[in-house]
Write a structure and sequence with these properties.
Layout: H1 3-25, H2 39-51, H3 53-72, H4 76-99, H5 103-126, H6 135-159, H7 162-167
Helix pairs in contact: 1-2, 1-3, 2-3, 2-6, 3-4, 4-5, 5-6
Length: 168
């Protein structure tokens, strides 16, 4: 990797960790428990479209690890976040590589599978499948927030200098 690429990657990773932390501070009284906007996902999408699939593949896991080190520790919150991130990252790369889905489809699909990954981990940790009933709520909110983050990301990507994109 070039120095410029590594520097941008580190910058985006720091922004994603901060966005994740800030998101936990913002009360969303109109949302169901566990539903978030996905601000760190917007940063991840920028990495995907700006730095490429290889850079994106590890990005989410590094963000979850750094967030655990800095804020939450390595308990159930970490495992739930990691499960969602691994599944979402896999599906996102698949959507980009195989289907050539738009940024909206990629973001919404990643958000839905992030929720599914989290529900699977919660079901395993607590030995119950009752959380699967929550998936309908998560799917609806994931599509909405995923599309919102895709819109924001597409605006940001349009403002990023083309020279850096091609020379990373």
């Amino acid at each position: 990797m070039k120095v410029k690429h590594i520097s941008l990657y580190a910058l985006f990773l720091a922004i994603a960790v901060i966005a994740n932390y800030i998101e936990h501070l913002i009360p969303l009284p109109f949302m169901y428990p566990g539903v978030k906007l996905g601000l760190a996902n917007a940063v991840g999408l920028i990495v995907l479209y700006y730095l490429g699939r290889k850079s994106y593949a590890l990005f989410g896991v590094l963000r979850v690890l750094l967030s655990a080190i800095l804020f939450s520790g390595f308990g159930s919150t970490f495992l739930i976040a990691l499960g969602g991130t691994i599944l979402a990252t896999s599906i996102t790369i698949l959507l980009v590589s195989v289907t050539k889905a738009s940024i909206y489809g990629v973001s919404a699909g990643g958000a839905v599978f992030h929720g599914l990954g989290q529900v699977i981990v919660v079901s395993i940790l607590y030995g119950t499948i009752q959380m699967l009933w929550y998936m309908l709520t998560l799917v609806i909110s994931s599509v909405i927030t995923g599309c919102l983050m895709a819109f924001i990301t597409s605006l940001i990507i349009k403002k990023l200098p083309e020279k850096l994109v091609n020379n990373s």
